[in-house]
Design a protein that fits this description.
Elements (H helix, E strand, L loop, with lengths): L12 H14 L5 E4 L11 H10 L3 E4 L10 H11 L5 E4 L11 E4 L3 E7 L9 E6 L7 E5 L7 H15 L1
Parallel strand pairs: 1-2
Antiparallel strand pairs: 2-4, 3-4, 5-6, 6-7
Length: 168
């Protein structure tokens, strides 16, 4: 059985399809979501966004603006993940770039086997975070967390082409 719910954000259809196929193969139900639920003046996760995570109980989250209490430091993010998902969850936050103040990341119930970040050709304050997740069963899952620029359709097209090329 495969259940996918659209949840506050634009999850990549490719990823949802891959999760659905994996869930059908192993009979494992996987809940994934894309999330840009930060609030306040510091683009950080606060109580309203945390409550949404706690209520929906996703297994995997492609998370944007991955900050807590005004910071993307490892200790702050560990505290956010523990609070919103649980201490058994793993996470990846893309590394800081010169201006990388609102990074993308991935949170997962299952171990992250490998991870990294691809450069965004349009913006310098975030990239495209990816992770290889060790799902139960014989197959793993790649997840890509993106936060496309709202400036113009040309910019978004450039970003989408870059992501497609990296995936290929």
């Amino acid at each position: 059985i495969c259940k996918l719910r659209p949840v506050l954000g634009a999850a990549l259809f490719l990823i949802a399809t891959m999760v659905c196929a994996q869930a059908a193969t192993t009979n494992q139900v996987v809940m994934i979501m894309a999330a840009n639920l930060s609030s306040g003046n510091f683009m950080s996760y606060e109580a309203p966004g945390i409550r949404i995570f706690q209520g929906l109980k996703p297994d995997i989250v492609a998370i944007q603006e991955f900050r807590y209490e005004g910071s993307s430091a490892e200790t702050q993010l560990r505290a956010l993940v523990d609070l919103a998902f649980g201490p058994e969850f793993s996470f990846y936050r893309e590394p800081y770039t010169a201006g990388g103040d609102i990074p993308n990341g991935i949170v997962s119930r299952w171990p992250i086997r490998n991870s990294g970040s691809w450069d965004d050709p349009v913006l310098d304050n975030r990239g495209f975070a990816w992770a290889l997740i060790d799902l139960p069963g014989p197959e793993d899952l790649y997840v890509v967390s993106v936060h496309l620029y709202t400036g113009s359709s040309t910019d978004r097209s450039t970003e989408a082409t870059t992501i497609k090329n990296q995936i290929q």
